[in-house]
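Summary for the funding panel

The consortium committed to producing paired sequence-structure records for every protein in the target list. Below we show the first two records in order, beginning with the earlier of the two.
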Amino acid sequence: MKQTSKTPSIRAILDRVAKGELKVPQAEKLLREISVEGYAELLHTKVDLHRRHRRGVAEAVYCANKTADQIVAIVRKIEESGQNVLCTRVPETTAKAVLEQCPDLKYSPVARMLYKQVERRTARPQGLIAVLTAGTSDIPVAEEAALSAELMGNRVVRLHDVGVAGLHRLLQSG
């Protein structure tokens, strides 16, 4: 596993135990999180902390039916690992409760997403992603896709309400 600046090494954890700064149960928990498994076990969720290393991007967390406390616990684990935070389908009332405990997150009410970008891709994007909607009713899902793509280091252009009646509406939008 590639260590990030925020992920403690096994040696650092053991040094803290030797100095008395960390108790054995806490060290065991940290060691399990950076082990080959790569997951943080919460009471309600198994957070994938190695997805970025396996797939190139951090885990996106689907939050439609999660409580604010569950989301906060997940966000804190992801932040500890030094990765981008991307929480989708977060109702506005839940987002407000989460933001009270995690004020460094941003919320997009249109995309219904809580997010925090802590790392940027070093590779330059190869192209441009166009996110189009037929009508304004599609904007929330389109914005979720566009914002997710941007947080993953891509360039995105948004074209809304291009219609389904004909290509001429798309050409007029640009």
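The next record, for a separate protein in the list, is shown here:
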Amino acid sequence: MATIDQRIEELIGSDYDSIPTNSHNDLINSAVNEIADMLPSELLLKYVQYKTDISTSGGMDNIEEKKVLLVTREVADAGTEVRECTPVPYFEFLRAQDATSIYTATVESPVYTYDVNAATDPKLKIFPVPTLAQKGTIWHFNYPAGDTGTGSTVLGLPNSCIQAVVLKACINLLQAYISDFVQDEEDNEMQTMLSAQMQSLQAQFQQEMARFIEQDATPRGE
């Protein structure tokens, strides 16, 4: 199977990374990130590769660069019954811990939030606090940071989305090309051709993504 780099090369040429020399990997990863954010969590859950269990009030560390897909908490010590946790703002999370409030969260209606009080160590926290016998679980998509282009797939994305990744990456790279032409005042005809190609790829990308997303957010094309 062709790599993402090879598929990009087939669309926009073998020197696609010669202008954004220092950023072409970032531009490809940016395409992956955008597509992951556009896809419904229900679809990504079918291909989820990462989950983190928590069993203390400390919560889940290192939540940066992750798209949280689902948070659950076990109801009883047996661990066979779980409830989906509802995301709430931080101050509502605090209110959910007040036993005298009508908004108190229970094991039947757990909640979660992002605790950013410690600016350098934000955490995802669940209430009621999970325990060793009643753990909480977070399923998440991890945004890539390495050289994604050398692979033919993206961990956590369906293979049927790779064409969309290729198209969006091409658009990002062509934008870098065009920016270089504008700044250096080079061939206007070449700039026009690049702009036309980018617009064509943009139309193809939108059509490709329409297979997976419609206004009702129902997963498609699988």
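Regarding this second record: The radius of gyration is 22 Å. The beta strands are 50-54, 66-74, 82-84, 86-87, 111-115, 123-127, 136-142.
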